[in-house]
Write a structure and sequence with these properties.
The structure holds two protein chains of two kinds. By secondary structure, chain A is α+β, with helices and mostly antiparallel strands. Chain A is 46% helix and 24% strand. Chain B is mostly helical. Chain B has one domain. The chains are: A alpha+beta, B mainly alpha. Chains A and B meet through helix 6, helix 8 and helix 10 of A and helix 1 and helix 6 of B.
Chain lengths: 347, 190
């Protein structure tokens, strides 16, 4: 038991240090050092929970014996018996949960480290800038959704370069809520039904990439209709495009100028990759590519701190975000083919 | 009376189905014609760069490579294209002339290093490449619309409506490997 207590205490200290280091890490090297620290622990990163399991078993057994005793002694189970049983079982469950949860903390920390590594590998930084979020919310029709609330939950900043263009971008997670009243039927307790109304809040999430440097007239290409639209409509020649998208602009010629065949075909190819994609161009705000996919900044982790050497190799290798790169490639293509000027300034 | 109403309802339903199919075929045909006009519009964009090409040819005297002849042939091929008639053979010829001209230019500039390095030539080549990409994309859109139209007249019961009322013929898609290669963009390659 004493050995387990020492091991658990050392592990707790290590986890605290690793968590702290992970929070403050600013480079891949910092993350690699975390994995090296884990490797130097020289024991599996697993809490020894025998004591907790034994205690939980004793408590559960005591609860069962209490019920049995009352049943035998009083021939029925008194309310105090049930209360005692519930307290003992809750304590047993609490101990089990504590034991399982602290072992899951290793996996949670591995996730945090890997997520940070993916962002570092792809030159993306989390951004806590309320003013930027508010600017985006005010600038694009994409964010005029939700009659109850609208908020940019997360904001990241990145830079992308290709042979012909380069731009800085914001990646966002937008959450909006629609409020509505609905009627429902319930039993009136007398064998009949009555109709009642209640308020329902529908939560929606959209994600996207905003590129402020884009300079273009207002054009909206959407597959997921926004609540607010532009006055003029335009239909390109492609049936496939028209099956998926609608185009609107402040005037038809601006849209026609943007929607060259190479751009139309790029939109067609984008449709199976992103869910419900929209592209909005605003003269003062730039470009906003929005979609329903929530996995553009996610990659699959293979190893964890439990296998420190393999995890270190995983962290050291570059982890590409394929879907994000496809979305960025689309924006580069748009910049090259549409009559859009890109002001190459970093954010 | 009931029989009469039943027959009338079935006849009205049939008439509506026939009208919807008939209009669908016309809509698809219009989409093909619009896509074709789009291809021709993109092809004719080449007319905008021909004067600049002629100027370069004269400035650097690229006559021995036959560039001037190729420019004349391309202009003539572009002139014969019509936005009103789907003429894939004419389009193939214009694309062939474009390919010849680009290859001719590439051979010719090998002997003129200063031309090869010049900004105006590189801008011109970039513009040609951009145009070729748009032509490739326009051809892809045309082929997609043709496929929609052909499916629209060949599948049952559209084939019956087409046979009796529209009487439209199947349209050939445009196949030209050089032109298709002009459009290199693909998200799936990433």
């Amino acid at each position: 038991m004493a050995v387990a207590a020492t091991h658990n205490s050392r592990l707790k200290q290590l986890m605290a240090e690793l968590t702290q280091r992970s929070r403050t890490a600013t480079t891949v090297q910092d993350l690699l050092e975390i994995t090296e620290l884990a490797a130097r622990f020289n024991a599996p990163l697993v809490y020894r929970n025998r004591l907790q399991y034994a205690l939980a078993a004793v408590l559960a057994l005591a609860g069962a014996l209490l019920l049995l005793f009352q049943h035998q002694y009083y021939l029925y189970i008194r309310p105090s018996g049930w209360t005692g049983f519930a307290l003992l079982m809750t304590a047993a469950a609490g101990l089990l949960l504590f034991a399982l949860s602290r072992n899951r903390s290793v996996s949670r920390l591995s996730n945090d480290i890997f997520t940070k590594n993916v962002l570092f590998d792809n030159q993306i930084k989390p951004l806590a800038a309320k003013d930027v979020a508010n600017q985006l919310l005010a600038a694009f029709l994409e964010f005029k959704r939700g009659n109850y609330s609208r908020k940019i939950e997360q904001l990241y900043q990145g830079h992308s370069a290709s042979d012909n263009s380069s731009f800085s971008y914001y990646f966002y997670h937008f959450h909006y809520v629609d409020k509505r009243r609905e009627t429902y039927t319930e039993s009136d307790g007398k064998g009949g039904t009555r109709i009642r109304t209640r308020t329902v809040y529908d939560h929606y999430h959209r994600y996207g990439i905003c590129v402020p440097q884009f300079k273009s007239p207002a054009v909206l290409v959407y597959s997921h209709a926004p609540d607010h639209k532009l006055p003029a409509t335009y239909r390109p020649a492609s049936n496939r495009f028209n099956n998926h998208y609608r185009v609107q602009s402040t005037d038809e010629m601006q849209a026609a100028r943007l929607m060259k065949p190479a751009v139309v075909v790029a939109f067609e190819d984008l449709y199976p990759i992103l869910q419900r994609p929209n592209v909005e161009l605003q003269p003062d705000a730039g470009l906003c590519l929005s979609f329903n996919d929530n996995n553009l900044l996610l990659a699959k982790r293979q190893y964890s701190l439990q296998q420190p050497e393999l995890f270190r190799q995983e962290i050291a290798a570059h982890t590409p975000l394929d879907k994000l790169h496809q979305a960025l490639h689309f924006i580069h293509h748009l910049a090259n083919h549409a009559a859009i000027s890109l002001q190459d300034a970093r954010l | 009376m009931t029989t009469f109403i039943t027959v009338a309802v079935i006849a009205a339903l049939l008439a509506i189905i026939i009208i919807v199919i008939y209009n669908g075929i016309i809509t698809r045909l219009n989409a093909v014609e619009r896509a074709w006009a789009n291809v021709i519009t993109q092809e004719r964009q080449k007319n905008k760069i021909i004067p600049a090409l002629e100027q370069l040819t004269e400035q650097y005297q690229l006559y021995e490579a036959g560039v001037m002849t190729q420019i004349t042939e391309l202009r003539s091929a572009l002139h014969s294209l019509s936005a009103d008639n789907v003429d894939t053979a004419g389009l193939a010829q214009a694309e062939q002339k474009t390919t010849n001209l680009i290859k001719g230019l590439q051979v010719a500039v090998e002997n003129y290093p200063e031309l090869k390095a010049s900004e105006s030539f590189n801008n011109l080549m970039r513009e040609i490449s951009n145009q070729q990409e748009n032509i490739g994309a326009a051809i892809r859109i045309f082929n997609q619309n043709v496929e929609d139209f052909n499916n629209g007249i060949e599948t049952f019961p559209n084939s019956l409506v087409n046979q009796q009322f529209n009487r439209k013929q199947k349209i050939q898609t445009f196949t030209d490997s050089e032109a298709e290669q002009g459009f290199e963009y693909s998200l799936k390659k990433q």
